[in-house]
Design goal:
single chain; 227 residues; alpha/beta; Rossmann fold; two-stranded parallel sheet; 7 helices; 38% helix; 22% strand; NAD(P)-bd_dom_sf; NAD(P)-bd_dom; NAD(P)-binding domain-containing protein
Length: 227
């Protein structure tokens, strides 16, 4: 935990609240006394996220308005975009979720006055798409790049973009490599991604930064403080 963080519980709203990264993040936030609000599309997931300690809010980010989402953000200290269309989705949903939902959450954060915003992106965003890339994965990278570009243009949000490498379901290591682009491709556990997001929330001075993340030798708190 960051030394400068006060003891006042914070309210953190997480889009993609039933996703694997989000579930790790909920556990971290709850354990340290913060209040996690999980935005979920499927009401069947309410019990699961509540059992982790989050307040579930059922809302479809592909259908909701910015005003609808802003209601959940009023009074929040930060918003985290950790949603994704998922590996089984097609080109259309890469745009509606990985770009559209991210833009919607940012719109809602501005409306609600929630300045701190952490967006989970991906390696490959913001870079030329290699020849021969699968068309669905290419659409995903296009969507992630567009979401980043939209966020960087927002002067009323204290945003941080986090681009993790290949995601693993292994146990957390607590050690990473975190740096401004570029960074050699690598992998990182979803649990470590969540821990980095939690640490970024403790470090407002990381606002306006785009950061690459893989597993590595540096303890997470030190890695975040260093950037």
């Amino acid at each position: 935990m960051a030394e400068h963080r006060d003891a006042t519980p914070r309210r953190i709203v997480i889009a993609g609240g039933h996703g694997k990264i989000a579930r790790h993040l909920i556990k971290i936030l709850t354990a340290r006394g913060d209040r996690a609000v999980a935005l979920i599309r499927n009401p069947d997931h309410e019990h699961e996220v509540a059992a982790l300690g989050a307040e579930p809010v059922v809302i479809d980010l592909e259908a909701a308005s910015a005003d609808d989402v802003a209601k959940t953000l009023v009074g929040a200290n930060a918003a985290v975009f950790a949603a994704g269309a998922g590996p089984g989705s097609g080109i259309a949903r890469k745009d509606t979720v990985d770009r559209g939902a991210a833009v919607l959450l940012a719109d809602a954060a501005e409306k609600a006055g929630t300045r701190r915003f952490v967006q989970v992106g991906s390696f490959g965003a913001g870079e030329p798409i290699p020849e021969g890339t699968d068309e669905v994965f290419a659409a995903y990278l296009v969507a992630k790049t567009a979401a980043e570009e939209d966020l960087r243009a927002r002067t009323h949000l204290d945003w941080t973009i986090l681009r993790p490498g290949g995601l693993l379901d292994d146990d957390p290591t607590g050690h990473v490599t975190l740096t401004a682009p570029p960074l050699e491709p690598g992998t990182v556990t979803r649990a470590d991604v969540a821990a980095v997001v939690a640490a970024l929330l403790d470090h407002p001075e990381t606002a306006k930064k785009t950061l690459m993340l893989t597993s590595g030798p540096t303890p997470i708190e030190e890695a975040v403080a260093a950037v």
